[in-house]
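#lab-general

N.A. 3:47 PM
ok so I finally got the sequence cleaned up, no stray characters, all 550 residues accounted for. can someone with queue access submit it? mine expired

B.Y. 3:52 PM
send it over

N.A. 3:53 PM
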Amino acid sequence: MNYTISVSVSLFLLCASLSRISAFQITSIASIGIANLDTTFPVSSSSSLCTGRRRSQLRMSDKPAPASSSSTKKRRKRTSNSRNKKLKRKPPKNPSAIQTWRIFGVEVDPDALGETALLLKKDKDAPSIPVEQIYISQPMLDSLLKRLKIKGTASFTNSNLSLPPQLKDVRMIRRSLDARKKRVLREGPRYTYVIDIDLSAQSAMDLRLTNQPGRNEIVTPDMEHLPLESSNQSKDAEKKTVIVVGAGPAGLFCALSLAQSGEVTPILLERGQAVESRGKDIGALIHRKTMNTESNFAFGEGGAGTWSDGKLTTRIGRNSKNVRTVLETFVKFGAPEKILVDGSPHLGTDNLVKLLRNMRTELRALGGQVLFGAKMTKILDEEGKVTGVDVKYSASHEKGMDPGVEMKEEGSTETIYGDAVVLATGHSARDVYEDLHRSGVKLEPKGFAAGFRVEHPQKVINKIQYGDNWGRNAYSGKPSTDEKNYAFFASGDANDEEQVEVHDGRLPVPSYRLATDKAFDGESNRGAYSFCMCPGGQIVSYPCSSIEIQ
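B.Y. 4:20 PM
back already:
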């Protein structure tokens, strides 16, 4: 057998890399152009343009005669006019056409927001506000107008948004806190916003908006999320069948996207149990050291991260189409809407359980199959082409099973054929990779990093990250924690100096991450990083077999 199966978790990195390269190239070209302009328009006059009489005067004189002031001004004026002609923008073909621009780095001082900076608890009596407006405030609007150099006023009261005539609409895409050490010491932390504005093409030209990656970007259709809606154009007889092995994040999103296309029938195989039954198996593992080798922290619906705290972390463009698609899908199936705009979105384990059940129901409603206790034992191929998989079933339990779903008999086997097979098995399915290796599939080793957890009192992290002036303004929403933090800073134990500034703004509880690629393990350097900043969390072992239980 001579074929290669390539398993890739993220194509986002390639896109992000290409974006960085493009931005660098544009910057470089612009720099070269400016340099050429400087050398093309010299200010001093050239002696080769002088008359013969003028040359003799230069040779006879110790100092050259100064250039005429009026002629120099004329030359400078001609140079300025020629530059302005080159930089003059063409009027838009359709001045009234509405454009959407994404504005990055709009900053607001936390003191300007006061207690409204954090939405710690939702008031049940408060009017419902669209998620894109929950962080809109008067200081944010003022900062936006200042950034765009718009002379006018904007206001936001009782969910009513009033804007100057240049702007048609304002939507917040993301808010985060810039509390880098140098900034905190120099001027204090700042809330930074990414904002989408709608305006006419003529207004965009009047405001001199130019496409500058990371500062001002025009939102094109490929940037904006185009939601996948289910399509019934293809008849079932014409649909292809794709087998997806593994119901972690990669497998779930793969199967859901295929089902939504209306052209493919996905069959999702998960060796572990449904999320509601999986919880019982994990409880037995923690408290009684009783392990189900096919349903545990590593195996089961949702993958290895289901029983984590549900942090959503990415090091690619957080406002990109792919990331927005994932976040909007989570919200559709039950995640809190705040994850769409928070700089550090957080799902929570309770939300994950509900979300996974809703995704499963949707997948089946679109014609897909979801089989639990279904362990792939072999990949089938004919003449170098994958044609299906062999499956062995273990006992499975699914609470509130969807209508029409049949349970497979424990110990039974089945061969499932398909037009393609997607492996989304995760790193713990060692038997899968061993079988692939024996079958002659080319595999490449991947480096890994070791994680560790460091625990501190919250007040200590507040002091380290925010300093003495801002540490007392960190609020967790938990009265006991916040009272201890305030008492710590008010007592003077936290203060290195006698004089401490008092601020009104509220800050979220800080977190940090340490990482290195030079952790020596006795033979070579290895990557190591810190993780999990949630108070009250715990470290648990992730055994994949009974011999690993301690």
